[in-house]
Specification:
Pfam families: SRP68. With about 575 residues, the chain is mostly helical. The chain is about 65% helix and about 0% strand.
Length: about 575
């Protein structure tokens, strides 16, 4: 055989995986290999350059191990893997790594093409090369030496690469055919194996589905956009490549639809929309709000809120740039700035959307925290939600509503101002309620009762003012439910204040040694921190040691002692000399 002639006189390195030919033929887990390699070498973080470097290093190791060198240091001599060489699955792996290296380089260039459009040409070249390597792999797998599963995986892999090339070239029909072929093969493979093995194939099908829907939409299927939105919801809060791809596809679709949008109406005024970014955002606003309403869980809802706010901030920034240009033109032409211009009113509308979205997001977070606040704490060491957390959320809501009342162009809109004032009253009531609850936790009964009365005052005021404003409370929390809850809390609080805290504390506030005559089932006694005695104990008064002061000493007259004191004479120089030599002693 050709392989024997080629390797005659050579000693090939031994490898434990070399003898991998089974009764059915050579087998290679193509999808498993590329997924494991991608996750372990950069693609978990979207680092295609790192993955491309890994593919190059693995190719070099494979060529060295197989003795499949392409020339020497000075000259490159291209060599291709042939069917006759397929005595080892690593020859198939060699071609697979060449395709992966070209594909990863193309994806790297796709990221860079966002800022450098010229790199798109190089991107297409790399994708075509990856598809060419995929076709080579598929032809090699047609050999009878390769098992059936590897043949099917090679066909699906080639179809995927071919579909990517057609997708970038915007050949939608050919791309959809290639992706559908790939999807069909993976679905058949998933049904033929156990559930554990089928998970990988199902994940691949989910990755391909958005591309198929987008191709269908460009061909003319109007239902494809709705399916894309549903896929966006089903992606959950995990993000990653799947979520990024869906966001990109939906943005591209909206960009095409935005060409037909020319104006928007708000608060009885029609404003022309000439900025493309504003058109795209306003066109997708309804879809984003519907997606938030249909979100399956709070995590998904939070992610969609953040996406909407990020898009809104970018749009507002684009409008601000146009406002600066408009202001400069007015200065040059000396125009009087009396009436609010269309661009300024559009800026106010976008700011309203941003602020109201912040309000709804914080309200959603507050509902989630309230539910957790009512749940019993199972872990004593873990910090649970507190009323102070909710107070902070309602502070942000009130700040956003205060900014709404100062929007340019709405100063004379009395209905709008009344609606904002009514909304502020509702959220003030809720904020005051949780401030009262924080006082209850520290046993300040009188302060809590006063705050509960303030909550009832706000709630009654809301109900009286809401009669004149139709549908003003439609999107707001129910104040009647708050009134019911406050009345119940007031009665419990009054009883707790009268009983000195026993009703609220349920006897667990005092140590066990001080309430031995009163039976109370206290679960904390068998917990990690039972309240048995007060430690350290309180200080107690004790009699102090007396101090004695001798007051009579001040009135005692002592006798003179002058005669007892030795008088020193004045000897002069003679006495000094006698003293030196000891004569005077």
């Amino acid at each position: 055989m050709a392989l024997d002639k080629q390797n005659e006189g050579k000693i090939l390195p031994m490898d434990e995986n070399k003898e991998n030919t089974t009764e059915d033929g050579i087998g290679l887990e193509i999808l498993q290999i590329i997924k494991d390699s991608q996750q372990q070498h950069g693609l978990r973080h979207g680092d295609y350059q790192r993955y491309r470097g890994y593919c190059s290093r693995r190719l070099r190791r494979l060529r060295k191990t197989l003795g499949f060198k392409c020339g020497n240091r000075h000259k490159f001599t291209g060599k291709k893997v042939t069917v006759e060489m397929l005595s080892d699955k690593r020859y198939l792996l060699l071609v697979l790594m060449e395709a992966e290296r070209a594909w990863s380089y193309a994806m790297q260039l796709k990221q860079e093409a966002n800022t450098e459009p010229r790199k798109r040409f190089h991107l297409l070249s790399r994708l075509r090369k990856a598809a060419k390597h995929g076709e080579r792999l598929e032809k090699l797998c047609e050999s009878p030496r390769v098992d059936a599963k590897t043949k099917l995986e090679a066909q699906a892999y080639t179809s995927y690469l071919s579909g990517m090339v057609r997708f970038e070239l915007q050949e939608w029909k050919a791309a959809m055919e290639a992706f559908n072929k790939c999807k069909t093969i993976y679905e058949k493979l998933a049904s033929a194996f156990t559930e554990e093995l089928a998970v990988l194939y199902h994940q691949r099908v989910e990755e391909i589905s958005p591309n198929i829907r987008y191709c269908a939409y460009n061909i003319g299927d109007q239902n494809a956009m709705n399916e894309l939105m549903q896929m966006r919801l089903s992606a959950g809060g995990g993000g990653g490549m799947m979520a990024e791809k869906l966001e990109a596809l939906i943005t591209q679709t909206r960009a095409k639809q935005a060409a037909t949008m020319s104006e928007v109406e708000w608060r009885g005024r029609t404003v022309p929309v000439k900025i493309d970014k504003a058109r795209i955002f306003l066109l997708g606003l309804g879809d984003n709000e519907a997606a938030i309403a249909q979100a399956a869980n709070e995590e998904t809802k939070e992610r969609l809120y953040e996406t909407l706010l990020a898009e809104c901030r970018d749009t507002i920034q684009a409008v601000r740039e146009e406002l600066k240009t408009e202001a400069k033109q007015r200065e040059r032409s000396d125009e009087a700035s009396g009436k609010v211009s269309n661009l300024q009113f559009l800026h106010s509308y976008l700011t309203y959307i941003k602020l109201w979205t912040v309000v709804k997001r914080n309200e959603s977070m507050a509902h989630m925290l309230q539910a957790k606040l009512k749940e019993p704490q199972t872990d004593e060491n873990k910090r649970g939600p507190r009323p102070q957390d909710l107070i902070r959320l309602y502070d942000i809501i009130l700040q956003s509503l205060a900014e709404l009342s100062t929007l340019q162009g709405l100063e004379e809109d009395h209905t709008f101002q009344k609606e904002v004032a009514l909304k502020m009253l509702v959220y003030k009531a809720y904020r005051c309620f949780f401030i009262a609850q924080s006082y209850v936790l520290v046993k300040k009964w009188s302060e809590a009762l006063v705050l509960y009365e303030r909550v009832l005052k706000y709630a009654m005021e809301v109900q009286s003012k809401a009669k004149s404003l139709n549908n003003s409370l439609k999107d707001l929390p129910d104040v009647q439910e708050l009134i019911t809850e406050v009345n119940a809390e007031k009665y419990s609080l009054q009883a707790a204040a009268i009983l000195g805290g026993y009703l609220t504390c349920k006897g667990s506030h005092f140590p066990l040694c001080e309430r031995l005559d009163t039976f109370h089932l206290d679960p904390t006694l068998v917990g990690k921190q039972p309240n048995l005695v007060q430690f350290p104990p309180d200080f107690q008064p004790i009699p102090c040691k007396p101090l004695f002061f001798d007051l009579a000493l001040n009135h005692v007259a002592f006798p003179p002692l002058d005669d007892k004191v030795e008088q020193k004479g004045k000897g002069g120089l003679t006495g000094y000399i006698k003293g030196i030599f000891g004569f005077g002693s």
